[in-house]
Design a protein that fits this description.
Strand order of the largest sheet: 1-2-3-4
Structural class: alpha+beta
Number of domains: 2
Number of helices: 4
Helix content: 25-40%
Distance between the termini: 10 Å
Largest sheet: 4 strands, antiparallel
Number of strands: 14
């Protein structure tokens, strides 16, 4: 992690951009790739918000909620539903899930729209079970790819057009004064949620970035020593901590800025690649 004063750092970056070498423009990442990262980052942040809002609403009605209660988001033809489930022991110790509530969520407005509780609980729906199984499968292998990763995780899982799941796992944190980048996993999981098809660490280490207590207009930053683009989870972290914006991401070849809405701007080639092992990788 680079620790230069933010204003001096930004001025230095602008100087580097002004002095980029001829021909560097052809190395510029495509706008299509940047827009895809933005869309995925906003989707992750939306999933996290849906779970947080639904949990808050459900706990008001069920203050004795068990710690084992799970909240998973399913997208039913554009309508987001947060399914509240609890584990139950079946025959021979097999674990099943019962649905305690279904909560409607509007991702554009960031609001809970409906809540329906079930007493007694019902059998959990198959789409919610698929999401939960996919999250469990990814959680079971994260330590193979990210040594620093420890539960609990902040989760986001989505059913893709090819019927498989994409799962993002980020270590959860209660710190309000700093945001954590890194120690996160991207996994592709089979359509039944039972088998991890492939997985990779999005960063291999974590970087804690202080969140300003008030808007200063000065940039914050973290650096990667691997990879050439901001990650989807980088976008989600900035959206969830708007005080970080504008946030700079330095990769070995490129420099980017992320604003509070999760828009990426390419600043130019990085002529002084980050080498410190202390930043997110």
């Amino acid at each position: 992690m680079i620790s230069l004063p933010a204003a001096a750092l930004f001025a230095g970056i602008l100087g580097l951009v002004a002095g980029i070498r001829p021909g560097a423009a052809q190395e510029r990442p495509s706008e299509e790739a940047l827009r895809a990262i933005e869309a995925a980052g906003r989707r992750i942040a939306g999933y996290h918000e849906a779970v947080a809002r639904a949990r808050e609403r459900f706990q008001k009605q069920a203050p004795d909620m068990a710690p084992s209660t799970r909240f998973v988001v399913v997208d039913r033809h554009g309508a987001w539903r947060v399914i509240v489930m609890r584990p139950v022991e079946g025959e021979a110790g097999a674990k099943g899930w019962q649905m305690q509530a279904e909560i409607g969520f509007n991702p554009k407005a960031g609001e809970v729209t409906t809540i329906e509780r079930f007493n007694p609980p019902r059998q959990a729906p198959s789409d919610a079970l698929g999401v939960q199984h996919a999250i469990e499968a990814a959680s079971a292998i994260i330590s193979l790819h990210v040594a620093e990763a420890k539960a609990p995780f902040q989760e986001a899982a989505f059913k893709e057009p090819d019927k498989t799941f994409v799962v993002y796992l980020q270590p959860a944190t209660e710190r309000s004064t700093a945001a954590r980048f890194g120690s996160d996993l991207l996994a592709n999981v089979s359509g039944d949620g039972m088998k991890v098809l492939k997985a990779r660490a999005m960063h291999r280490a974590a970087a804690w970035v202080p969140v300003p207590s008030s808007a200063t207009g000065e940039p914050t930053l973290h650096s990667h020593i691997e990879g050439e683009m901001p990650t989807e989870t980088d976008l989600a972290v900035v959206i969830e901590h708007p005080g970080l914006a504008p946030h700079l991401v330095l990769t070995p070849r490129h420099m980017f800025r992320i604003d509070e809405a999760g828009v990426i701007t390419y600043l130019g080639p990085n002529q002084v690649p980050p080498a410190s092992p202390g930043g997110a990788r």
